[in-house]
Amino acid sequence: MEIKVHKDHNWIQWYKENELQSTNSNWGLFSLYYNMLQKRAHKTMNQLESTHYIKNTTMLPHQKEVCEKVLFSMNGRAILADEVGLGKTIEACFIMKELLVRKMAKKILIIVPASLIYQWEKELRLKFFIFPTVYKKINASHLDDIVLCSYEQVKRNRKIFEQHCFDLLIIDEAHKVVNPKTINYQMVQQINKKYCLLLTATPMKNTLDDIYYLIQIVQPTLFADIDSFRQLYTSNQSIFRERLSRVLVRNQRQDHINFIPERNIETKFIYFTEEEQAVYDQLKKQMIQSKTPHWVYLKQFCSSREACYLSLQKNEPSEKQLLSEIASLPHHIKAKVLIDLFQTIQNEKVVIFTQYKPSQYYIQWYLQQHGIQSVAFSGDLSQSNKQWMVEQFKNDKQVLVATDACSEGINLHFAHILINYDLPWNPMRLEQRIGRIHRFGQKNDVRMIHLVLEHTIEAHILRVIYQKINVFQASIGGMDKLLEQTMNEYMVDS
Amino acid sequence: MSTLSFLQTFYKNFFRMTNCNILSEEKDSITVQLTKEIDKAIMHRPYYWTYMETIQQEGIPQKVCFTTNDKTANGYTLQYDTPLYNRTMSWLQKNTVYGVYYEAIHTNTETMLYPWLLLNVKIGYEGKIHTEEIISIGLQLIHGIIEFHMMEKLAEKSLQEKPNDYCYTIAPIISVLNGYKQMDKAINQYLESKSYEWAMTSYHEMKLEEKIWEKHDTNILNNEKAAMYKRLQPKIHVEVLQGALIYIRNNQFRTT
User: Fold this and answer.
1) Distance (Å) from the C-alpha of residue B36 to the closest C-alpha of chain A?
2) CA–CA separation, A326 vs A154, rounded Å?
3) Is pLDDT of A139 > 70?
4) Choosing among B72, B78, B92, B123, which should be mutated to test the A contact, i.e. which has the most A CBs within 10 A?
5) Does A8 contact B at CB distance below 8 Å?
6) Cα distance from A405 to chain B (closest Cα, Å)?
7) Share of chain A above pLDDT 90, in %
8) Among positive and negative, which fits the CA dihedral B220, B224, B225, B227?
9) Predicted local distance difference test score (pLDDT) of residue B28
10) What is the pLDDT of residue A198?
């Protein structure tokens, strides 16, 4: 074995040139500097040194374990996949601090969703004394050492980022980069990095392959190719999971935080009225040939008349007959069921999620008609407006009606009831949704209610979600409850 | 002493030694009248000073309240690794890179002071994990005796920038350049005497990775392979950070 020894002879060079010049050095300063150097020398091989330099944060035992594992046995390349609310950000910050303190990293790039930039900046500055640069506009000639920016910024300046060589690359909400066909994925893969952390509570967005593509970014040599990845999963799950654990760390709430409350999941099956079912069936029949897949309209129709009407009007304006039939329907059965639900909920705070903006407005209006006050929350609000809406909800209004734009980074732990007004195809989105209320600081047991229309596409979606969760559990491991357990076998078999 | 109060003491000493007046001192803050030199060095306001120079004005150094309460962490917070701290350290590095110091002896008999070359050296051991060590070596420039832990040994003495009366310095026989070469050899010997477990672990992992890489297409993933070497190839980095010519009384050290 050969060890490269690099000696820096700058000092003697300096001496030769400046020996005779008088210096204003004094012995006090000379020893002051020496003592500081001695104090800060990081001598240990397998202990965290950064903990001495952080004041306002202490690590929970599971976070410490993750940091040590990533640094000392995974060589600083990992997917941090703790469940929502266990502090992935803190773990990543600690690892970053450790790499900085040990001078293992200097140039760092942190990519996060635009809405989380200021949260990250604040956390880094106040808790870790790391001062990242947040650019308004990125200049081609120079990048600061620690750069914090959004996916969009990186996308817009791909060429610049590709030229640099980063010691550490951190990607938050990394489930955004699981599809190798997307620009997001390709740009991330192009970035040169020495160490790399991917943060996501939901490493499997839709299919098992998602995990493979995440791994390709962090440890491309872990599997020979995608076929051997798939094959190992089907042939031997325990070896598969062992292999995965070399690059992926996942903590579950139930193992680590004993005071985290229970999740109670309920599915409420609803039946369309006869006239609604008639329109639904007609819609299904007529739209089977349309450009947009027909299930899109069906899904919208299950959410609200308005959602379906507006998108149909936009895409298929010729369907006058159908449009007028939808328009003439009475109030949606789901909305009525929702109001009934509120009878039992009384004055508790409730978060309602829907995928569609028209439904969002409709729900808000319909609640208002029944004397229930609410705020609307969607992705196009500015950061300060979002904060304001959350404050309103916390202090004055009973209900927050949100679209999925809300489902990352926002903290609503003061509410403990969540209603899924319509179901997304992807179970991870459900996890993100419930993660808003089922997190640190939640004092009550959490109740999540799915509203599902029986005999429609929604029942089918529910079945798909059950299947996806089963694949997830077989590959990555346990997952907190998202659906009612008792229905599992029935749903997957049918 | 905890790591953080160490930093506070460090800053207090720093301001005192650079002639910055400490105007008041509270539990978690310290108000200091900076000198022009230190203001320029640590406050990072180059535009102000350039402007003052162009209009040929003296410029007024700032009076600053530095806080150790970091709830708000801004430019005036005393903490490790902040931009303020980094500027302070790099100013110190630049200004203490070399000096000539004499032992302070109050005497009225003639006293001989022997010349020593002192080097404070940073050694970085860079494997899968990086560690670092600061060593301090002294070489007596008459007989060529080498001492380790020099700074710790000198801590028992007091040193100053001018010799006292009745103290005479002996001229070095070994030049600083030759002394430096001898000390370089001593550093090599020191490195050879160290345990290399850290490097072995790293090296073995690198060899394993290399094997795995043989099965992969390195054309596409060339950068990734290079990054693997960067992470695992063991390296040692040696850098002299401070040096000094020191005149002290002879035979003062207990042998180590």
Assistant:
1) 15
2) 44
3) yes
4) B92
5) yes
6) 30
7) 40
8) positive
9) 81
10) 96
Q: What is the DSSP string of A34-86?
A: HHHHHHH----SSS-SGGGG--S----HHHHHHHHIIIIISTTEEEE-PPTTS
Nearest to B239 by CA among A263, A234, A37: A37
Residue with tokens 């060593």: B135
Question: Is the Cβ pair A102, B130 closer than 8 Å?
Answer: yes
CB contact (8 A) between residue B216 and residue A15? no
Residue with tokens 């020496």: A34
- The predicted-structure confidence for A430-440, as pLDDT tens digits, reads as follows 888 888 888 77
Q: Would you state the pLDDT for residue A494?
A: 46
Chain A / chain B CB contacts < 8 angstroms: 193
Q: Which of residues 154-173 of B touch A (CB under 8 A)?
A: 155, 159-161
**CA geometry: angle at A443 spanning A441 and A448, to 5°?**
100
- Three-class SS state of A164: coil
- State the maximum Cα–Cα separation within chain B, in Å, rounded to a whole number: 79
Pick from A474-488, B132-146, B205-219 the range whose average pLDDT is largest: B132-146
Cross-strand partners of A352: A401, A419
Q: What is the pLDDT of residues A257-307, one digit of tens each?
A: 655 678 888 888 999 999 999 999 988 888 887 888 888 899 999 999 999
Specify the DSSP element, H or E, that contains A387.
helix A383-395
Distance of CA B39 to the CA centre of its chain: 21
- Asked if B237's CB is within 8 angstroms of A6's CB, the reply is yes
Q: How far is B32 from chain A (nearest CA, A)?
A: 18
The whole-angstrom separation of Cα A475 and Cα A487 is 21
When CB atoms are compared, the residue of A10, A41, A71 closest to B132 is A41
Do the chains contact at B92 and A23, CB–CB below 8 Å?
Answer: no
Q: With cut-offs at 50, 70 and 90, classify the pLDDT of residue B253.
A: low
- Summarize pLDDT for A303-362 with one digit per residue, the tens: 999 999 999 888 888 888 888 888 888 889 999 999 999 888 888 899 999 999 999 999
Grouping H, G, I as helix, E, B as strand and the rest as coil, residue A449 is strand
Q: Would you state the pLDDT for residue A295?
A: 87
B104 touching chain A per CB within 8 A: no
Query: What is the phi/psi pair of residue A325, to 5°?
Result: -65, -40
Residue A33 has its nearest CB partner, among B96, B184, B198, at B96
Q: Is the Cβ–Cβ distance between A168 and A109 less than 8 Å?
A: yes
Two tokens at A75? 């060589």
Within 8 A of A107 by CB-CB distance, chain B residues are none
Is-contact A363 A373, C-beta < 8 A?
A: no
Q: Which of B72, B129, B209 sits opposite A72 (nearest CB)?
A: B129
Alpha-carbon separation of residue A82 from A75, A207, A285 (angstroms): 19, 19, 44
Structure letter (DSSP) for residue A355: S
Q: Residue for token digits 């190839």?
A: B233
**Contact B130/A at CB under 8 A:** yes
pLDDT of B133 above 60: yes
- Which residues in chain A are closer than 8 Å to B184, comparing Cβ atoms? 7
Asked if A45 has any chain B CB less than 8 Å from its own CB, the reply is yes
SS (H, E, C) chain B: CCHHHHHHHHHHHHHHHCCCEEEEECCCEEEEECCHHHHHHHCCCHHHHHHHHHCCCCCCCCEEEEECCCCCCCCCECCCCCHHHHHHHHHHHHHCCEEEEEECCCCCCCEEEEEEEEEEEEEEEECCCEEEEEEEEEEECCCCCEEECHHHHHCCCCEECCCCCCEEECCCCCCHHHHHHHHHHHHHHHHHHCCCHHHHHHHHHHHHHHHHHHCCCCCCCHHHHHHHHHHHCCEEEEEEEEEEEEEECCCCCCCC
A13-36: burial string, b at 16+ Cβ within 10 Å, e else = eebeeeeeeeeebbbbbbbbbbbb
Cα A197 from chain centre: 14
